[in-house]
């Protein structure tokens, strides 16, 4: 069938001249491949910069009991940007992987193929690293938001264990979550509004963490033994110490 390799590589007899023409044909293909590599590398760097920016937004939002909407919107934009770029990277890595597999299926091993495999593996590892960092950032932020809720509850004389708080958070709806708290304590409006703010941040995070996890499982297959990513523990990784 038609191969996705742009330069048709004909079955060659042992004539050396043919080899030369094939090499020339393949040069264009490798140039194109390296352009792709540069593009992917650029996307990964962009995600990395965005993750740093996300950390700054997290700190800004946590620093204020009622953070301004603009900062929260900027955070959401960054998150959606990371997701879009990550999906681009993932599909580009996938298509490189498929073209490599196709050539391996035809038993073509060449220096070019080895170069492409090495590049693919390096990029995949870089990608998983930056996405792991993002995942750790999200989880860390979730813990810190949770800590703020816990503190506000303590001020009102209500102590909760981490597990109890998790159960309350499971309810998904900030209003329900908050009304449960109003019912049994004389809580100030200000404390309540902070609790609602932190809780809605957590809800936004949950979706993002879930999506990341799905993407991870996919990438983990691709990187397999290079970086081990466990299942659901990616949702609640051990406390992340900033590197």
UniProtKB/TrEMBL annotation:
Gene Ontology MF, one: SNARE binding
The keyword Transport is assigned to this record: yes
PANTHER family: SYNTAXIN, SYNTAXIN-1A
Family: Belongs to the syntaxin family.
The T-SNARE coiled-coil homology domain, residue ranges: 192-226
Locations listed in the record: Cytoplasmic vesicle, Secretory vesicle, Synaptic vesicle membrane
Recorded GO CC terms: plasma membrane; SNARE complex; synaptic vesicle membrane
Topology class, membrane: Single-pass type IV membrane protein
Stated role: Plays an essential role in hormone and neurotransmitter calcium-dependent exocytosis and endocytosis. Part of the SNARE (Soluble NSF Attachment Receptor) complex composed of SNAP25, STX1A and VAMP2 which mediates the fusion of synaptic vesicles with the presynaptic plasma membrane. STX1A and SNAP25 are localized on the plasma membrane while VAMP2 resides in synaptic vesicles. The pairing of the three SNAREs from the N-terminal SNARE motifs to the C-terminal anchors leads to the formation of the SNARE complex, which brings membranes into close proximity and results in final fusion.
Protein name: Syntaxin-1A
Gene3D superfamilies xrefs: 1.20.5.110, 1.20.58.70
Alphabetized InterPro entries for the sequence: SNARE (IPR010989), Syntaxin (IPR045242), Syntaxin_N (IPR006011), T_SNARE_dom (IPR000727)
Highest taxon listed in the record's lineage: Eukaryota
Coiled-coil annotated spans: 68-106
CDD domains: SNARE_syntaxin1-like, SynN
Keywords: Coiled coil, Cytoplasmic vesicle, Exocytosis, Isopeptide bond, Membrane, Neurotransmitter transport, Transmembrane, Transmembrane helix, Transport, Ubl conjugation
An example Gene Ontology biological process: neurotransmitter transport
Residue ranges, annotated region (Disordered): 1-20
Keyword Transport listed: yes
Primary location recorded for the protein, binned into one broad class: membrane
